[in-house]
Amino acid sequence: DVGSANGTFVNNQPVTETVLRSGDHIQIGQSILVYSAGRNGGQPGTDLADRINMISRQQDLEWSSAIIKTVAETEGSRILARPDQAGTVWLKTALANLGIMYEAIQAVSHILDLDQLLERIMELIFRSIEADRGCIMLRNSSTGQLEPKAVRWREGVNSQEKIALSRTIMDYVLREKQGVLVSDAASDERFNTGQSIVRMGIREAICVPMKGRHETLGVLYLDTHTSFREAVVRNNPTGKFTEDHLALTIAIAHQAALAVEETRYHHAMVQAERLAAIGQTIAALSHHIKNILQGLRSGSDILKMGLADKNDMLLQKGWKIVEKNQSKIYDLVMDMLSYSKEREPVIEETDLNEVIQDVLELVEGRAGEMGVKLDARLDDSLPHVQIDPEGLHRALLNVVSNGLDALEDRKNPQLGVSSGLDPEEGWVQVVVLDNGVGIPPQKLPDIFKPFVSTKGARGTGLGLAVSRKILREHGGDILVQSQPGKGSKFIFRVPVKSPLSQDLGAGTMEFSLPPPPEEED
User: Can you give the pLDDT at residue 201?
Assistant: First the structure.
């Protein structure tokens, strides 16, 4: 920093000059940057193989005579699981503490729910430290105040009794950035400005800062009370807590703080992705909705003119425009609901051919206006299938409507729908075939993604995404084959349930349409 008005901050600390480490947060004005270094501190071109001298087997023939002791590869997990079997007291204690740290790291790496994470941390602490009460206090990012996020009592301790939390100790820990072990704190001059410990009668307390990567998030607080009788029985006038307990607690608190930061980061990322998805949705739909509204306004203006002039032709024209845009609104809303809702198909025994015929009847008027020849080749021997008829109707209508869109301004436009069985794979199949403009090969991988449309401003990009979602809810799928200038083929596949698949040999399909005539220059 060279004297900027707002200063430069690294990990929330003002700096003039500092060495950066990978992951450091840099704040310059309103901008926050994250520094990411490569391997070896960001030094490019470093080949680690140059740092290793491999001794050949021929040069190292006597290595086996230098072995003093061997240990099986399974010993690592066994020793961690049973530290009491270690050979020395030091090793027993070290392995027990290491085991607790290992469990803490495992817990924080798998739990993304903050409440569950903190409860797990408290459980691990109470297994390793003989505390009566404990809590985790995290700083509220809005108010800056410490708030309890996890509280625990040892079994046998009255959980209805409030935890006497010393503000004096917490203030010291946060101010000095040190963990403290307090025993008979009334005699500790560092806390002589407050009387809370004496007043509440706390004999021993451990309070440590929860230091994350960038800031102190809060404190972890434990306390216990040792009666005179217990002290005599234990032959330990200093109480239950030791410096080892303090060291272990601050190590666990650090891991917990890192986990809290990771959890908050994860939630922030999820929220950012959710907001980005909302923004993408609004951007993708707003233009299409505006076009529909413009169509409705145009139709209503023509209706007004027809009413004023008592002109039946204008009334019919205006109503047709309004009706067309009403259908667009309905289709849009239904697609949005179908795609956004997680739903289980309402399964019932259905004649799939009837669903196909209903769809063709719906588009028959539009096809006639466009001069499109509809060709239905339905297998009469097709057995009834277990499907959600409303869902399949929606999926099929979307694809057939797309096929009609692809046939606009084409010569000899044709659209065919066929049904049948694939006896080898055990699918009920519906094929929708058109001789329209086709889909470019580079766009085929993306056509089932939401808001991806090959029709420009005329499409929302939801139709095919909804259709695939519906088919996959049935355990099926949609396949597509297309060739630019010659047309597209969409294949619906729905699995045949075993009670309905007794005769899989009937009605296999082979369906094609004549190619469109060559376009004239």
Answer: 41
- DSSP for 184-227 reads SGGG-GGGTT--HHHHHT--EEEEEEEE-SSSEEEEEEEEE---
Q: What is the pTM of this model?
A: 0.45
CB atoms within 10 A of CB 414: 21
- What's 9's DSSP letter? E
Flag whether pLDDT at 50 surpasses 80: no
Provide the residue ranges of all domains of the chain, joining segments of one domain with +: 1-39, 74-110, 112-341, 342-500
Given a cut of 90, whether residue 196 has pLDDT beyond it is no
Cα 515 to Cα 416, 437, 519: the distances in Å are 13, 11, 11
How wide is the angle at C-alpha 13 spanned by C-alphas 11 and 14, nearest 5°? 130
Q: Distance (Å, rounded) from C-alpha 288 to C-alpha 453?
A: 12
Q: Which residue has the tokens 């690592």?
A: 76
Per DSSP, the residues of 123-143 read HHHHHHS--SEEEEEEE-TTT
> Which residues are CB-neighbours of 330 under 8 A, at least 6 positions away?
none
Beta bridge partners of 195: none
In the block, which residue shows the tokens 């694939």? 422
As a CATH number, domain 342-500 is 3.30.565.10
- Topology classification of domain 1-39: Tumour Suppressor Smad4 (2.60.200)
Structure token pair of residue 69:
């002791």
Q: What is the pLDDT of residues 175-185, one digit of tens each?
A: 888 898 887 54
Q: What is the pLDDT of residues 352-411, one digit of tens each?
A: 999 999 999 988 888 998 999 999 999 988 888 888 888 898 889 889 988 998 898 888
pLDDT per residue over 438-488, tens digit each? Answer: 988 888 888 888 766 666 555 566 778 888 888 888 888 999 999 898 999
- Neighbouring-strand partners of residue 458: none
Kindly list the distances between the CA atom of residue 55 and the CA atoms of 59, 60, 61, 64, 447, in Å, as whole numbers in the listed order.
6, 7, 10, 14, 56
Coil, helix or strand for 376? Answer: strand
CATH class of 112-341: alpha beta
Q: Print the SS3 string covering 485-500.
A: CCEEEEEEEEECCHHH
- Cβ neighbors of 190 (< 8 A, separation 6 or more) are 172
Supply 215's token pair: 């800031």
- Compute the radius of gyration of the chain from its Cα atoms: 36
Question: Mapped to the 3 state alphabet, what secondary structure does 378-420 carry?
Answer: CCCCCCCEEECHHHHHHHHHHHHHHHHHHCCCCCCCEEEEEEE
Residue 219 has pLDDT above 90, yes or no: yes
